Amino acid sequence: MSTATEANFDGLVGPTHNYSGLSFGNVASLNNSARASNPKAAAKQGLTKMKALADMGFVQGVLAPHERPHIPTLRRLGFRGSDAHILQQAAKHAPKLLAAVSSASCMWTANAATVSPSGDTSDQRVHFTPANLVNKFHRSIEHETTGAILRATFRDERHFAHHDALPSVDTLGDEGAANHTRFCHDYGEQGVAFFVYGMEAFNTHAPRPRTFPARHTVEASQAVARQHGLSAHQVVYAQQNPAVIDAGVFHNDVIAVGNRNAHFYHQDAFLDTAKMKAELLTAWGDRTSKFHLIEVPRADVSVQDSIQSYLFNSQLLSRGDDDMVLVVPGECENNSAVWAYLNGLVTGHSPINEVKIFDLKQSMSNGGGPACLRLRVALTDAERQAINPATLMNDTLFERLNLWVDKHYRDELYEKDLADPMLLIESRNALDELTRLLNLGNVYEFQP
User: Fold this and answer.
1) Is residue 175 flagged as an active site residue?
2) Strand order in 323-329's β-sheet?
3) Which of 12, 131, 139, 330 stands the most exposed, by the fewest C-beta atoms within 10 Å?
4) Which of 101, 254, 284 is nearest to 189 (CA)?
5) Identified catalytic residue from 106, 184, 332, 372
6) Comparing C-alpha atoms, which of 335, 260, 221, 345 is closest to residue 4?
7) Average pLDDT estimate for 271-277
8) What residue ranges do the domains of the chain occupy?
């Protein structure tokens, strides 16, 4: 067994970060539409979290944002002329379409892909499948660029295998790692892949939500598991509770989070909690470490408090055997029920021994907390050495990226500003410079 660790790759917030209320089913996104955003503050908040985790000794990487507004999509949808003319016409005739192709939603890299470590896969390589995100138009246009950025970050074919996204149809709706967790004793050994889905697409009689969409299907999870060469004995599928989806829990990572031998989840997270626990414990088997099921009672923290605070959209980071830190947004401290629960948790008998708070208000206002901002990749020492080193956070990169943000980002952005041709020029100039900072090569369509 190889020595291995878990790396977190956070999405860098893009220059067009704005509040357009595009995500039906995401309560925070809908509630904050039409407010002014601050792209510069958003990017710096994300960078501060990345640097803090790197300083704590965790492997921390950066994933680049996408080109926005995405002119190629507008051209495919019938707009013609210069880039400036296309923006003008889109703003006049299809303003919500312009908002959609301008979204900086790729910052939430928990949705970027599903990742299977080499300890789990049949060919002993790390496998990546970009999520098709078909349920939301503004996200469904991401997977091609996401795939290009992942290939530029994890280049070495001896260690990394890259797949295309699943077909972009509702039957195979795939929301990536926001609905996938991996449990293991050690990151280098074979683990348990835990896939959570919102509905069975081919079984119309199975339970499903009535108000908000079930974005992820079991058929998509099964396809990814096959594509990655996972052993059926080490895979568990569980359905989200349709009632909590209708309450605003659009992804499993809004109601549950796991790492190594700990599963931290709300009492109402799953349709059949008893079945979920039994199947996870069976797949876990007789290992040297205990499997911790940390179930938060609804009597202590309601589903609404979980959504408002993003208690479960936290990063559960392992510092060693049964020694974990929970990274939460500041909203948790401001919710009395959640804060009381967390204080009891760290003084109790769970492996979670510390809570770290970060200010992520810009991301939170669009419905994304700490866990939304990161893609987890378990890596052996050899695989870690094979990563594009320019994407790994350190003192030098932190300084360079902050200077880059200061140079290229605006302090305030409204939805109406998306039609400004200068914003497109500013964004392209920023991304062109960023590809050189991160040694990505030409990953954007506007680059020659």
Assistant:
1) yes
2) 315-320, 323-329, 352-358
3) 330
4) 284
5) 372
6) 260
7) 98
8) 4-437
| Dist CA 175 CA 197 (whole Å) | 9
- Answer whether 0.85 is exceeded by the pTM: yes
Map residue 172 onto helix, strand or coil: helix
- Residues of 115-147 as b/e, b for ≥16 C-beta within 10 angstroms? bbbbbbbeeebbbbbbbbbbbbebbbbbbebbb
Q: What is the mean pLDDT of the chain?
A: 94
- What is the average pLDDT across 110-125? 97
Catalytic residue among 175, 219, 331, 415: 175
CA 129 to chain centre: 13
Strand partners, 357: 328
The tens digit of pLDDT for each residue in 69-95 reads 999 999 999 999 999 999 999 999 999
Check if CATH label 3.90.550.10 holds for domain 4-437. Answer: no
**Residue 21 has what pLDDT?**
58
Residue 311's nearest CA partner among 278, 349, 261, 268 is 268
Could you confirm whether 106 is annotated as catalytic? no
> Cα dist. 311→55, 230, 295, 307, 341 in Å?
23, 30, 13, 7, 10
Task: Take residue 84 and report the two structure tokens written for it.
Answer: 């400036």
Confidence (pLDDT) at 288: 83
Q: Is 372 a catalytic residue?
A: yes
Distance (Å, whole) CA 192 – CA 283? 7
Which whole number is the average pLDDT over 326-344?
A: 95
